[in-house]
Amino acid sequence: FLQTIIAVLEDIDTKWEIICVDDGSSDHTLQHLLSAARANPAISVLALSRNFGKESALTAGIESSGGDVVVLIDADLQDPPMLIGDMLEKWREGYDVVYGIRQSRNEDSLTKRVTAGVFYRIFNSLTSVPVPVNSGDFRLMDRRVADRLRELPERTRFMKGLFAWLGYKSTAVYYDRPG
Question: Distance between CA atoms of 42 and 39, rounded to whole angstroms?
Answer without folding.
Answer: 9
